[in-house]
Amino acid sequence: MYATKIKMKHGCYSSGSLLEIDSVYIEGCKDPGFFKKAVLHDFLKENPGAIQVKIWPYPNVVPATSSAGEKYVRSTPNDYTHDNLLDLPRE
Rounded CA gap, 17 and 4, in Å? Predict the structure, then answer.
């Protein structure tokens, strides 16, 4: 499955923070669409490696938790200076 676009929280369209992502569009599943980041976090805890960002080098999407306890997702680190999820098209 691939993450192909993101939807930011209201008023945060230009944000560079992963915590401001509201939902991620997932394709390659039987019901493609936007999924809230907390739902993806829980899914990836049970299914590590199941979703990649559809941007080369196709890093895995992994669960993370903020210092305030907020569930979110990020991509595995690579040579880019910021997270690949933030390079996906935004709606």
Answer: 17
Best CA proximity match to 3, nearest among 81, 76, 82:
76
For the chain, what are the domain ranges?
Answer: 2-87
Beta strands in 1-91 (DSSP E): 2-8, 21-27, 33-36, 52-53, 61-65, 71-75
Q: Pick from 18, 30, 31: which is nearest to 76 by CA?
A: 18
pLDDT in tens, 37-64: 999 999 999 999 999 999 989 999 999 9
Q: Residue 22 contacts by C-beta under 8 Å, 6 or more apart in sequence?
A: 6, 7, 8, 9, 10, 36, 37
